[in-house]
């Protein structure tokens, strides 16, 4: 195996998952994902997080080689979600004298998930742990992504181990550090990972960014995706923008349409936005595209224009699923346009209006609704809606 050094005595021990279709059994990962763990070999030996359970055998084998058979003294648990704690019990079985390092919530979760009552060291903000010449400092970052999450700072090489924060979907196809690959090609997967996994916790992410500002960071080692050492500002700026809902000029148009009538309205709106000079326009059929991808673009662009046919006197089901996800994510500060169609009793636009009341975004123009197909003399209504939204985007 290749030895991948972050520093002379600090190793990457990670695995690429190209088999799993749905991360957390919800989010599509067509480009896979990596599970990153790290090993520090000093007078004492420490692991930082583990990996998903499918990789236990290879994980333990690699640790055995890197430690040259010495026992691991500490398992530092930055995050307890099972994609990182999956090897916890196996590590304890192999190294029965290991000490777990985490905070109060970490150990509650270890008990709840794995019935683990291993000896432990409870840490707080600014607690330190010496491994010999290596000194580690801890800072809690609750809800990025779970209540127990924390970061670990290695002060000699100034490496910040961040758990899920600054992570990404996408396997590491040879390159592991940001300067060994074209990091810009991961941009979509970074945003999608943030929006899907961390996006609900933007206020917490802001607090976390402020807390870690005390560190002089030379490297960011997350539990997913590349290790950042040459483009640290890129990933920190990305997190700052996303967690403060800073958007680019652009619009996402999503529709649910059985026979194409609502889809035609979406096409008119999209075309008129383009006529007005909006270049970032994404049009999605909610029955085809998973909310994972749509949510990601909603985080990126200022306007969301929603169309729904009525279905059983309610909203179109796949639009409803998307809106439930948006509400759960608590996305803020967007422009909203509404349109749709019905055959006899409505339910699409009516429920989109309820969504608008709940989400409290700025509704632009009047909601537009057709009985059956769009009438030719209504064309200008959709052009007007697109113009009103373009005016706001370009303002
Ligand atoms: Fe990658 Fe929240 O676990």
UniProtKB/TrEMBL annotation:
The UniProt entry, under CDD domains, shows: flavodiiron_proteins_MBL-fold
> Start and end of every Flavodoxin-like domain?
251-390
Q: Which cofactor does it need?
A: FMN
Instruction: Please name the source species.
Output: Aquipluma nitroreducens
Q: Provide the protein name.
A: Alkyldihydroxyacetonephosphate synthase
What is one Pfam family matched by this protein?
Flavodoxin_1
Member of which family?
In the N-terminal section; belongs to the zinc metallo-hydrolase group 3 family.
Under Gene Ontology molecular function, one entry of this record is: oxidoreductase activity
């Amino acid at each position: 195996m290749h030895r991948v050094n972050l520093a002379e005595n600090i190793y990457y021990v990670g695995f690429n998952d190209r088999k799993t279709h749905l991360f957390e059994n919800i989010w599509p990962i067509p480009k896979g994902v990596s599970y990153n763990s790290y090993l520090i070999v000093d007078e004492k030996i420490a692991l930082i997080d583990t990996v998903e359970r499918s990789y236990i055998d290879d994980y333990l084998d690699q640790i055995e080689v890197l430690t040259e058979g010495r026992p691991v003294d500490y398992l530092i648990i930055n995050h307890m979600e099972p994609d990182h704690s999956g090897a916890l019990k196996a590590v304890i079985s192999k190294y029965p004298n290991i000490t777990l390092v985490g905070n109060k919530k970490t150990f509650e979760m270890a008990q709840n998930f794995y019935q683990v009552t291993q000896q432990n060291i409870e840490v707080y903000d600014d607690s330190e742990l010496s491994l010999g010449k290596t000194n580690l400092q801890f800072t809690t970052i609750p809800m990025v992504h779970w209540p127990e999450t924390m970061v670990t700072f290695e002060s000699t090489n100034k490496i910040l181990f961040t758990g899920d924060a600054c992570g990404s979907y996408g396997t590491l196809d040879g390159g592991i550090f940001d300067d060994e690959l074209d990091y810009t090609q991961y941009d979509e997967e970074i945003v999608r990972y943030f929006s899907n996994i961390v996006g609900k916790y933007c206020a917490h992410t802001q607090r976390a960014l402020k807390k870690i500002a005390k560190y002089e960071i030379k490297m960011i080692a997350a539990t997913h995706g590349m290790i950042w050492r040459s483009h640290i500002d890129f990933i920190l700026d990305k997190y700052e923008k996303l967690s403060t809902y800073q958007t680019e000029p652009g619009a996402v148009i999503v529709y649910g349409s059985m026979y194409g009538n609502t889809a035609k309205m979406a096409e008119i709106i999209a075309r008129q936005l383009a006529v007005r000079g909006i270049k970032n326009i994404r049009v999605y059929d909610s029955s085809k595209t998973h909310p994972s991808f749509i949510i990601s673009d909603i985080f990126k662009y200022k306007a969301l224009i929603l169309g729904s046919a009525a279905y059983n006197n309610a909203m179109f089901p796949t639009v409803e699923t998307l809106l439930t996800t948006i509400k759960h994510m608590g996305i803020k500060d967007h422009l909203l346009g509404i349109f749709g169609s019905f055959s006899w009793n409505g339910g699409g636009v009516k429920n989109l209006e309820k969504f608008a009341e709940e989400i409290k975004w700025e509704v632009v123009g009047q909601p537009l609704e057709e009985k059956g197909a769009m009438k030719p003399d209504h064309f200008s209504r959709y052009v007007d809606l697109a113009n009103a939204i373009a005016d706001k985007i370009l303002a």
